[in-house]
Specification:
Elements (H helix, E strand, L loop, with lengths): L1 E7 L11 E8 L2 H5 L10 E4 L5 E2 L4 E8 L4 E3 L6 E7 L4 H10 L15 H7 L2 E2 L2 E2 L4 E8 L4 E6 L21 E11 L9 H6 L8 H15 L7 E5 L5 E2 L1 H7 L8 E2 L5 E2 L2 H7 L6 E2 L2 E3 L6 E4 L6 H19 L8 E2 L1
Bound molecules: flavin-adenine dinucleotide.
Length: about 325
Amino acid sequence: MRIQLNYDLHAQNTFRMKVSCACYVEYETVKELEGLNFDRLPKPLLHIGAGSNLLFTGDFPGTVLHSNIEFIKYIDMGLDEVPVMVGAGVVWDHFVAETCRHGLWGAENLSLIPGEVGAAAVQNIGAYGVEAADLISGVVCFDLQERRKVKFSREECRYGYRDSLFKQPEVKGRYVVTSVLLRLTRRHSPRLDYKGVRDALQGAEPQTPQQVRDAIVRIRRQKLPDPEEIGSAGSFFKNPVVSREQFARISPDGTAPHYDLLDGTVKVPAAWLIDRCGFKGAAEGGAAVYERQPLVIVNASGTASPQEVLALEQRIINGVQERFGVTLHPEVEHI
Ligand SMILES: Cc1cc2nc3c(=O)[nH]c(=O)nc-3n(C[C@H](O)[C@H](O)[C@H](O)COP(=O)(O)OP(=O)(O)OC[C@H]3O[C@@H](n4cnc5c(N)ncnc54)[C@H](O)[C@@H]3O)c2cc1C
């Protein structure tokens, strides 16, 4: 276990914000986590993974916790549906890569999503028609309030679109995910509903999850910044949901990309709105809108400050509000 005071968080967030926290705790086992003297740690407490969905807006006055619980345990490889228990500190994509190598289907569409397994269960990460909740059958946590282990079934996790019980304001920060139970399958079951995935496979019918993974990796590398090369936290804004009337004002001829939702509302890609306002490539100091995907704000200079990112965020929100009357909300969690 590592406990350090006045810790530099630069390497702990993929936006590469130069901020620090009063105390940083990295633990290797559940026992170490349970044994921490929480009463003596500077408050508030914040548990992070790889910091790939976070924007630190300044120095953090409390304690940042990070899990190094790293194991992947295949409970019965002989079954068609293979249950796998995974430590919260495992890098999500290492887990996906390993299951693909074993020929197990389920996680391949979620290849290359940054972050760790614990956060994947909190965020209900998703891409290319699949979300983590499709694979999760249970989540094991440490309850910081009652200081005991608790288990949640998939239903109890209340998964929704990029949402879960763990994100609800009444319990946010209370449960530390320590491991996640997922279920993968040996049955040939590629999910190729997204046209881009079929295109990347060049018409071939994939025989292995590895083939789908390779295609997804190719698509993502073309579109998204590699956190190792350029700082970002992925999609910065949520796609707004508007009324039919509002959509008619945004796009009088109805040609703007959109998804009709069951309740009669319409989801509009935030990237399209931002692009239409001419923000592609726009910059505030070292922060810029990514040229290849306007939904992503990047730390283009490598030295962008939180204030520069926030200024660019506000400029985009104001621009989209003025032009389309739509308020964008950040997807990235501001700390
Ligand atoms: C280039 C790029 C592309 C991305 N693409 C996608 C994508 O396609 N789909 C998608 O869904 N997301 C995507 N993301 C967002 C990000 O990868 C996910 O949100 C990911 O799950 C964050 O994982 P993390 O470990 O970095 O968590 P953090 O960003 O560190 O934390 C996220 C949240 O989880 C909480 N948390 C973290 N660990 C634990 C734990 N052990 N117990 C309890 N709470 C915890 C944190 O408090 C925080 O609220 C992308 C990000 C980047 C930078």
